[in-house]
Amino acid sequence: MKSEKSEFDLHRFLPFLMHHASEKVSLGFRDIYRDRYRMTRSEWRVLATLGQYGRLTATEIVTHTGLHKTKVSRAVFSIEQRRWLRRAQNENDRRVHRLELTSQGQSAFQSLCEAGIAYDKKVRDFLGDADFKRLSDLLTKLNDL
């Protein structure tokens, strides 16, 4: 039952607004990587992280992406099945593998980067340069909270 005196408005509540805006923006880009490469969000994030940072362990990918280790593990397996990723065993600790993109993985990453730049431009055009920059700055600041 809604209280008449309540100042709380779910649709103005920052976490609610951010979640819905994030989903809307994310789903717009998801259509690109899903349709072009039949990738999941986790696979895209792992591919993009390896493309951005180079050779990493699965634990380092977890740190960069915020994904749960089981999602990273499944995404790594799937990307490896596509031959977009290769593993190199650590000589000092055989339980640890360094992961890196193959040339085919790099090619997919570059293609999706170009699509990402175009998608970012679409959002920038919708918001306008000043609002896009302000939003980006505010989100960066919130991520430091």
TrEMBL record:
InterPro entries: HTH_MarR-typ, MarR/SlyA-like, WH-like_DNA-bd_sf, WH_DNA-bd_sf. Gene3D superfamilies: Winged helix-like DNA-binding domain superfamily/Winged helix DNA-binding domain (1.10.10.10). This is Transcriptional regulator. Coiled coil: none annotated. PANTHER family: MARR-FAMILY TRANSCRIPTIONAL REGULATOR (PTHR33164:SF57), TRANSCRIPTIONAL REGULATOR, MARR FAMILY (PTHR33164). It comes from the Bacteria. It comes from Thalassospira permensis NBRC 106175. Pfam families: MarR_2. Residues 11-144 form the HTH marR-type domain.
